[in-house]
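Amino Acid Chain and Its Fold in Token Form
===========================================
Scope: a single protein chain, as residues and as a discrete description of its fold.
Amino acid sequence: labelled as such and written in the usual single-letter residue code.
Position: the record begins directly beneath this header, with no further notes in between.
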Amino acid sequence: MTPKEKAKELFDKMFEPNNHYMNKNIEIDKIIAKQCALIAVDEILKITWVDKFLTVEEYWEEVKQEIEKL
């Protein structure tokens, strides 16, 4: 997958119809989706190492589980 394709995929996931229920203005929803996708990428870029007992996949699975608990 190219960076352009991944960017579009992330944006589309943030912009799914189920995700923009708070605004009736689709342009605002697009801005919010773009901001969410950028936040996700920024967080991935901050990872320089993962706990020595976890793979990168395991780390992100645990992060996902913690988000679901919120």
